[in-house]
Amino acid sequence: MPYISDTAIINIQSAGEAHVFVKALYPEGFKQIGSYSINDNGKILLNLSDLRNAWQEEYKKTGRLSQPLIVLTIITKDGRVALESINFRWDKMTQSTTITPKFRKLQKTVEEVSRGKMSKSSKDVQPLAGYYQWLDDYYEWTAPTIVAQVTPDSSTFGDISYTYFINKKVGFSINVFVDSDWTRLTSYNIVQKDEGGKHSGSFATGQNYYIWMNVKYRYERWGIHIDGYTFYEEYVYVKDFYPSTLDGGTSKPSNAQIPPVDYWIYEGSYTSQGYDQPYYTFSIWDLGTNNFAMDVLKFIDVLEMAGKISSAAAQKASLIGLFIDVSFEYDNIKAFDFDLFLHSNPGITHYVWKTKSEDIDTVPILYFDVD
Predict the structure, then answer these.
(1) What percent helix, strand, coil does the chain show, rounded to 5?
(2) How far is CA 360 from the centre of its chain?
(3) Residue 331 main-chain phi, psi, to 5 deg
(4) CA contacts within 13 A on the Cβ side of 143
(5) What's the CA gap between 67 and 190, in Å, rounded?
(6) Mind giving me the DSSP string for 294-333?
(7) Domain check: are 322 and 184 in the same one?
(8) 304-360: per-residue pLDDT in tens?
(9) Which one of 98, 130, 162 terminates a domain?
(10) Which of 22, 47, 273, 336 could form a cystine bridge with 34, CB 3.0-4.6 A?
């Protein structure tokens, strides 16, 4: 990966008197790479050479590479917080971006923060002293997750396939719990793997069929200390995925599931014209978006059993049906392919449904049901 400069420039606008904590996603997880104090507007220059070297070494060792992901926690004197994220590109350094923080009140800290003695400066940005963040705990779990599923009616049979194309980019959302709510960062963990994977299968009349793939989930709890008060950020995201583990069958692994189904989208009624001619076909090109939902609630259950995640975060995740948003197209190239073909004896009419999941966003699931 040839490069001239690894400088990233972040311009922050209309932040007021605030403190900025900067994290970057390394192969092992998030690390702090800076902390600053700003007055209204500020410019932060980040040297990402260490981050690039870390990911180059990771790619040599494991075949995994992520594009630069930067997370900013911005906290104001009156107790408001904003979580902002930025994706940069290794092939387009030096890069510059501008953000205007979207603040919300920290419900439990307004009075304590407003009593603080936050430093003032005549400069836009300077190193921050007296306020700090730290990685308080983390947990990882690797398990199969369902990436596609079909539930046919009693007269339907068919074929299904799922493919990952080697070294193509896939974005996995970063979900963060702060104070009392989950939020999804606007930027993704954009990963590419130096391995391909494919599974193709056929299902007999009336048989459910599942396709799954191993992924590595990661949980991080970060503590942030502000003038005698501490609050926490809890991160849940996909750290890695393993295309060579793509597999499928008429029964799924016991610990694999799809996200909660919140919407059934009626595809239409289809009458079979012949045994060898599919009455319904679907390709990932027909999805109408470049995103699909992947389960994370099973990982939340694991975190609860391990005593890692806060009860408030776990309860809210279950309440809203939290999931991982997977973005599978970058540079106009799709990382995944998916195909479904449904057949039956001629003359039989079938009703086909697709599904969507909703938490903070509404995203399709590659789950099909036939009545």
Answers:
(1) 10, 60, 30
(2) 12
(3) 55, 35
(4) 22
(5) 6
(6) EE-HHHHHHHHHHT-S-HHHHHHHHHHT-EEEEE-EETTE
(7) yes
(8) 999 999 999 999 999 999 999 999 999 999 999 999 999 999 999 999 999 999 999
(9) 130
(10) 22
